[in-house]
Design a protein that fits this description.
Length: 302
Amino acid sequence: MPSPGNELVRKHWTNLVAALAPPAGIPEYRASFEELCATFPVPAGTLVEKVDAGGIPALVITHPDVDPGPAGSTVLWTHSGGYIFGSAHGYRSFGAAVSLAAGARVLMVDYRLAPEHPYPAALDDATGAYRWLLAQGTAPERIVVGGDSAGGGLALATLLALRDAGDPLPAGGVAVSPVADYTLSGESMDTRAHVDPIASRETLDGLGALYRGDAAVDNPYLSPLFGDYSGIPPLLLLVGTDEVLHDDAVRVVAKATAAGVDARLIVGQDQTHIWTLFASILPEGQQAVDEIGRFVRQVSTK
């Protein structure tokens, strides 16, 4: 049985959907999501450092109880928001939670947003931030690349792009509720629409169109479901049962596993889109963050 916090999460999503209804536009989308993120507490003493990650603005977030040291692990995270809204600043609470769970610092990338900066701007920023970490002397085996929602799809695309470019690959990848298929062909787009309080085929198609521009919807750097996962490092994907994106995660894990990747899937029973974001008010969200932390510790400390 889901915890009482589950209903609060659904209320937050319902309120956000109402705030985004027409005539609201992109400025309202961005402001409303930042207002939601501002309700999540940032632990006192959390170190939040602005950095220029090779020309890409980012925050390095370290929980006050974490001292990763100069050789510690780093989680590079790309936030949610359909490539249209969201920010590193709004993700400080989540970044601190991941930092504590993983015993690592979190590089929260403020990638450029569409429609001002369509594809491949976000991908260029994510790969650029990773290469900046390498240039700073961070060993690739001490880095995990992760993200949620659109940022989850971006994390997977980043791994594919780095592999294809011949870059040293990180220790692993994490994707929470990833948007991995802009053809929107997953059965859950229809079968789970009645239980998803925030995402829908129409919403994903509309936001996706603003980001993808002229790119083909099955471009693997845009829809990583269609990528070749050969040689990709271990993956952890998380998705809720109550998501239209459920099948995106399931199919990515199946494809990666078939390519020989150590890919694990965690399905949150009765959970909605990116329930990890609500870790401060949702026990199941905190449990999922703890799973992410265990994965990071496992793959980046070998």
